[in-house]
Design brief:
- By secondary structure, this protein is α/β, with parallel strands linked by helices.
- The chain contains twelve helices and twelve strands.
- Helices cover about 40% and strands about 15% of the residues.
- The strands form three sheets. A six-stranded parallel beta sheet has the order 2-1-3-4-5-11, covered by helices on one side. It has a four-stranded parallel beta sheet with strand order 7-6-8-9, sandwiched between helices. A two-stranded antiparallel ribbon has the order 10-12.
- β6 (about 200), α9 and β7 (about 230-235) form a beta-alpha-beta unit.
- The longest helix is centred in the N-terminal third of the chain and has 16 residues, at about 95-110.
- The N and C termini lie far apart (about 95 Å).
Amino acid sequence: MKKDPEPKLGSGKSRSKLTDVAALAGVSTSTVSLVLAGKGEANRISEETHRRVHEAAATLNYAPSLLHRSVRRGRTNILSFYNSFRNRYAGDLYMDRISAAVEHAGGQHRYNVLVHCHFEQTVQETYEFLNGGFADGLILFAPTPDEPLLPLLRRSGLPTVIVNPRGPEEVLSTVEDDAQHGMRLVAESLIQNGHRRIAIVTRHYPGWPDSQRREEFLRGWLAEFGVPEQNVHTIIERTQTPDEHDRVLAEFLDLPERPTALFVWNDRTAYDLLDTCLRAGIDVPGELSIVGYDGIAWPTTTGHIVSSVRAPFEDLADAAVVALDRQIRGDPGPFHIQVPGTSSSGTTLAPAAL
């Protein structure tokens, strides 16, 4: 008689359960739980029973439930990472960098990282998932002051660290880029290259203070270094489209005593304007120097690397994980940490054209 083929391990529709291991080993589920938790010897479980339980678990390819194990240990060794922008698109080099930095920092400190990608849940559903026991703590990226998760997190016992908050925060721990130091680096590089007429491309809209803070800090440092206020001009970028970049460049070209340097509040816009200058026949950096912020090389047709301040993505992530680990281990915080960036020379900054 032809025998039915034996089922292949791992080919079933459902994963093996504790009860399956107990049935195959001929013992109770509590015995299986004790043996697999390494507590069998302390509970006087025989070597033969140990052998049967481990053989049954191997045969069924059984892995203990992470949630059950975390209940026993009080830890999952998993950190959540949640992006308050609630979007992620292909080619977003900025979020790629910060996400990769958080994943690497988590691994360096013996944590796995759960990156959240489902942004269609309600606020309550999101909060319940974040605080539902899957992770030991949360890294929350760039929330605005009116972020609806913040009141829930402040009242919870979930260890939380905010990276680059877009508003003041006193209850939860924060780790952020030291923008004042970064803008000093920009000002020093411009002054050292003889630039005294400077334009700043920025954005002004609610919930996004980065651009305005960078402008304010740069103006402050330039004034301290002796640049007259009337020599510093602001151009506001309204959207991130080719037509808008043409308009920004046209406004720049219409300025009296055309500036010799352009500071752009982030590198993505800096690269867009660099391409716009190429199309307009403006020589960068011979005619015009361009300096950005973030240290990210976005695609360009010019062959240039924008001179910039390199945001400390890796150091930010490491500081966030260390602060979160301290809270998980019982140090309540809150911690408020600033991390300085560094200069990135690039090819778009040169001595001022006379």
